Amino acid sequence: MRITKSESQTVLLDTHVIVHLNQNDQKKFGPLASEIVNHSYLLIPQISILELDYLHEIGRITKRGKEFASNLMFSINATLEMSPLIGLVDFSQKIQWTRDPFDRLIVAASMYMKVPLLTSDENILRNYKDAIDERL
């Protein structure tokens, strides 16, 4: 599948995709995901900033969430997703296949905005029809 700028779409990024993009680790992306990253309008979920802060606090990553987001906003012109919390909570209550609150709210943002989610999370890929595997 070849995506051109004229047929580009908006795609929401899962938190680990944000980390891979910040590390400039394009090896994690398959050909389809690379096309999507290079030719789509990319959105950073607000909740990912909080999840990245949590990962920073427990020592799994070295940067805070805002730094990750700022880097992508500057380097690849990504945009911060701005869905209202009440809408995300409403959609997340319909997601019963995960206990992870971050995954629930990220998938809820994708549902609320009606845009696909780029991820490699097996649980999300198995249960959410609008998930796109970053490894493809």
* Succession of helices and strands: EHHEHHEHHEHE
Percentage of helical residues? Answer: 40-55%
The first-to-last residue Cα distance is 11 Å
CATH hierarchy, class: Alpha Beta
CATH topology-level fold name: Rossmann fold
Shape: globular
Say how many strands there are. 5
Strand arrangement, major sheet: 3-2-1-4-5
Whole-number total of structural domains: 1
Structural class comes to alpha/beta
Q: What's the story with the biggest beta sheet? A: 5 strands, parallel
Strand content: 5-15%
Instruction: Work out the helix count.
Output: 7
Identify the quaternary structure here: single chain
**Unreliable residue runs:** 1-7
Assign the CATH superfamily. Answer: 5'-nuclease
Sequence-ordered SSE layout with sheet pairings:
Elements: E1 10-13, H1 15-22, H2 31-39, E2 41-44, H3 46-57, H4 65-75, E3 79-80, H5 85-92, H6 101-113, E4 117-119, H7 122-127, E5 131-133
Parallel strand pairs: 1-2, 1-4, 2-3, 4-5
Helix pairs in contact: 1-4, 3-4, 5-6
